[in-house]
Design brief:
Layout: E1 35-40, H1 48-52, E2 57-62, E3 67-71, H2 81-85, E4 91-96, H3 99-102, H4 114-124, H5 133-170, H6 174-179, H7 197-204, H8 206-227, H9 258-288, H10 295-320, H11 336-339, H12 341-356, H13 371-398, H14 424-451, H15 463-470, H16 472-504, H17 512-525, H18 531-556, H19 560-563, H20 569-599, H21 604-617, H22 633-651, E5 654-660, H23 662-673, H24 676-679, E6 682-687, H25 691-698, H26 700-703, H27 705-714, E7 718-721, H28 775-787, H29 798-810
Parallel strand pairs: 1-4, 1-5, 5-6, 6-7
Antiparallel strand pairs: 2-3, 3-4
């Protein structure tokens, strides 16, 4: 593949492929009637050679992360009227963005940040609301607080492993320390300087501190690469109103979250360091309050704990401040107080280590420090936040008027275009908390089993983690029953589809096996629509079982097997089985998560699968958690808008923005960001699109029926292609109004039923792929270009021309 860093608006005709063009080279003359097709791929990624169906491609603009490519023969197409006008076909360009999410194996380790990504999704799942700005802000605040508890939970789990299990319990117990020689220098029997409990805790605090520092570093690095990307300037244009949800993705600052992410990064880093400081200082302060303790150290302990509580209150205040500034480009950062929060928390951590390391001759490490209370408080806080979030989401959903132009997207079982009747956000937030509990409990259980081979030398992890592990078997049983119900539903639907398949191919010999396969593919594709049911049942069961586990742990202070010691033998056996099986399952789940991430270093297919997860999950900006994987759309959407604006300004031509799958979501987001003068020259062609089927149901405030109807009004030339065998794409569901409808009739898949003269070999069932193979694709693209008016003059104002030249050089 050849690469040429050319002018992003129009390549110079005298520049051969594979060479760079001088920045001050003049642009070619504008040619009215030039046509361009800008292709945007979907999940999983691809190569420009496959997108353009040509082995020789040239990079027009961009870098190794994301770039626009053309065929080598089309580099100077704007200077050749026969190429841009002949045949009625536009010049194809490919925007390749897959390296933003799955470019290398190291990014597969972002899988460990899954709870943070999921809670960030909950922020964007709020229902559509009109006239309730305070309730909308309350919803965002509750999600941010839930994200903060996840940070504290992760760091607390690291403290549980390093401070409690390793140095407090194992190093403080002779039998465990002898079995693990690397802890020998920390054992009280060794009599070394590090053998006192406080100094052991101070040394072990390096582990969770390093974890917090790593999260800060990763967030800061991706913040520079993603959130700090400047979108296309739109000065002088009217801004959407505060309650104008239909234009939310069109707001100037929507894809520029630099200030909020910097603020949340400082707050979450400080919260992590404060958690470590509390884990170090609390046991020492408890020892000083015993009879015979030092009055001076007791006073210092109270002062230190008060300073930790005061700094934690400042962190809460920072998180509770107003969220995103979407109505304008906010290029400023917060004051020094916010930016220096991590430094202040680190200073308190050093003071806590010095305080705990002070010699206390009568202090010995016995039992557990305070893990039960810590994890119990986090679990209770998360449960209350999720319930409050559900109440807030329900209030927002009730204020929404009936959907306009909802079409088939409005499923009566889930409300007008919203999954779980507006409760999708709280349900997903509950799943994020459950994932955080799975990871924290899993690592604690496995480390405890590794350190305590006999199961009798150390107390082990907090009782609450054992109770939480015990509820996993009944939760899996509920999910197994639900999956069985969905499988039966798909089987019945497949039987009902068989006559419809045969009627669709009336003139061909019937093949029962072929019919069953097509019908089965259609039935399996409908399982995507049952996603809200699966998420709702899982979330509700997790909340109820988690509440039962919390009540059991706090009420009995014993494990499930110990609490059932006086019960009948059947109950005792069930409790012991659930405890043992749950402990293994929670550890196995964590090990599988880590193994899958490590496998991606060597296995390209695993890396591609994980990349698909991030393609879907990291589309949204980091609004609730700064340690979530970065939002690739904050780079991709400005890339697309810059390319479309500069090309149409330089050539005055027509452009078809062609998006497949997740690429159609990026295309829609970029179309929202265009100015009206550019939007009038752009047509939108989507295929295999999840805009309504997934995004419209799960993110109704930004992709609901009202928002898509507004996009249809702004981008009048819009057509959507879909198949009934596609498990991801579906109809948009908008009426045409005064113009044609958005949706084409469902495409036939497969194109041929049996062997014919035209298809001598069996035609494949394409499902979600290869929409260009259908003849309807080229026909719809031709009609879109015909609907655009080629006789409009290109905007050539002096100010805009200077701005376009600056944009081309920066691109």
């Amino acid at each position: 593949m050849e690469r040429a860093q050319l002018d992003p608006a129009a390549p110079h005709p005298d520049v051969p492929p594979g060479t760079d063009r001088a920045p001050d080279a003049p642009a070619p003359p504008a040619r009215a009637g030039a046509a361009l097709e800008l292709l945007v791929h979907g999940v999983g990624g691809t190569t420009p050679e496959k997108m353009l169906d040509d082995p020789r491609t040239v990079r027009i603009t961009g870098d190794d992360t994301a770039a626009v490519y053309r065929r080598a023969t089309d580099v100077d197409a704007e200077a050749r009227p026969d190429r841009t006008h002949g045949g009625g076909r536009p010049v194809p360009e490919a925007y390749v963005w897959c390296n933003l999410t799955s470019g290398n194996g190291s990014r597969a380790l972002w899988l460990l940040l899954l709870p943070f990504m999921v809670v960030n999704l909950a922020h964007w799942m709020r229902p559509t609301a009109h006239g309730r700005p305070r309730t909308v802000r309350l919803y965002g605040l509750l999600v941010r607080l839930t994200g903060l508890t996840l940070t504290v939970l992760l760091v607390a789990a690291a403290c549980e492993v390093a401070l409690d299990l390793a140095v407090w319990q194992c190093a403080g117990t002779r039998a465990c320390a002898v079995r693990h020689s690397w802890l020998g220098f920390l054992s009280p029997g060794a009599g070394g300087w590090w053998s006192t409990p406080g100094r052991r805790l101070a040394l072990a605090a390096l582990v969770p501190t390093a974890l917090t520092g790593l999260l800060w570093y990763l967030s800061h690095r991706t913040w520079n690469a993603y959130e700090s990307q400047q979108p296309l300037s739109r000065e002088g244009e009217p801004e959407p109103g505060e309650d104008d949800d239909s234009g939310a993705l069109g707001r100037p600052g929507f894809w520029y979250g630099r200030r909020l992410v910097a603020r949340l990064r400082a707050a979450h880093t400080a919260a992590g360091l404060l958690t470590v400081a509390a884990a170090v200082a609390a046991p020492a302060a408890h020892a000083d309050r015993r009879p015979g303790g030092s009055t001076t150290l007791d006073t210092l302990g109270w002062l230190l704990l008060a300073a930790l509580a005061g700094t934690a209150a400042v962190v809460l205040g920072v998180v509770c401040r107003r969220g995103r500034s979407e109505h304008r480009l906010d290029r400023h950062l917060d004051r020094h107080l916010v930016r220096r929060l991590p430094l202040g928390a680190l200073l308190l951590l050093v003071l806590a280590a010095l305080y705990a390391g002070w010699a206390r001759p009568e202090w010995h490490s016995t039992g557990r420090p305070a893990g039960d209370a810590t994890f119990g408080g986090i679990a209770l806080g998360q449960g209350l936040l999720v319930v409050a979030l559900a109440v807030t989401a329900h209030r927002l959903h009730r204020t929404r008027p009936p959907a306009r132009n909802a079409g088939p997207a409005a499923d009566a079982s889930t409300g007008p275009g919203a999954a779980l009747r507006g409760l999708g956000g709280p349900a997903v937030a509950m799943l994020a908390c459950a994932l955080g509990g799975l990871m924290s409990g899993g690592v604690a259980q496995r480390v405890s089993d590794w350190l305590d081979g006999t199961g009798t030398s150390i107390p082990g992890p907090p009782v609450l983690l054992t109770w939480q592990a015990s509820v996993i078997p009944p939760l899996l049983l509920i999910l197994l029953v639900l999956c069985g119900r969905l499988a039966g539903q798909a089987w019945r639907l497949a039987r009902a589809e068989r006559p419809l398949v045969e009627r669709q191919y009336p003139d061909e010999p019937k093949d029962p096996e072929r019919t069953r396969r097509i019908a089965r593919t259609r039935a399996m594709a409908t399982l995507t629509d049952d996603g809200p049911l699966v998420v709702g049942v899982t979330s509700a069961a997790t909340l109820l079982l988690g509440a039962a586990a919390l009540a059991g742990a706090l009420g009995t202070d014993r494990t499930p097997a110990g609490a059932a010691a006086d019960a009948p033998p059947v109950v005792q056996g069930a409790a012991e089985s659930a405890q043992t099986l749950g402990s293994w399952l929670i550890g196995l789940g964590f090990i599988l998560l880590v193994t899958w991430g490590r496998r991606a270093y060597k296995d390209a297919s695993a890396r591609r699968t994980i990349g698909i997860l991030w393609d879907v999950g990291t589309f949204w900006p980091r609004a609730a958690h700064p340690f979530a994987p970065p939002c690739y759309a904050e780079r991709a959407v400005p890339d697309l808008t810059w390319r479309m604006a500069t090309w149409t300004r330089a050539t005055g031509g027509r452009l078809v923005l062609s998006g497949h799958s997740q690429g159609s979501v990026l295309a829609a987001a970029a179309a929202w960001q265009l100015s009206p003068s550019v939007r009038g020259r752009v047509a939108l062609l989507t295929y295999g699109s999840p805009l309504t089927r997934l995004y419209g149901r799960w993110f109704p405030a930004h992709f609901g029926a009202d928002a898509l109807a507004a996009l249809h009004r702004d981008v009048d030339c819009w057509r959507n292609l879909y198949r009934r065998t596609d498990p991801i794409g579906g109809p948009i569901g908008l009426s045409g109004g005064s113009g044609p409808e958005v949706d084409h009739a469902p495409l036939k898949d497969p194109l041929g039923y049996g062997r014919t003269a035209r298809h001598p070999l069996p035609a494949p069932i394409l499902g979600h792929s290869d929409y260009q193979a259908d003849p309807a694709f080229a026909e719809e693209r031709r009609r879109l270009l015909a609907r655009l008016r080629p006789d409009l003059p290109a905007p050539r104002e002096e100010g805009k021309e200077a701005q376009g030249s600056e944009g081309r050089s920066s691109a």
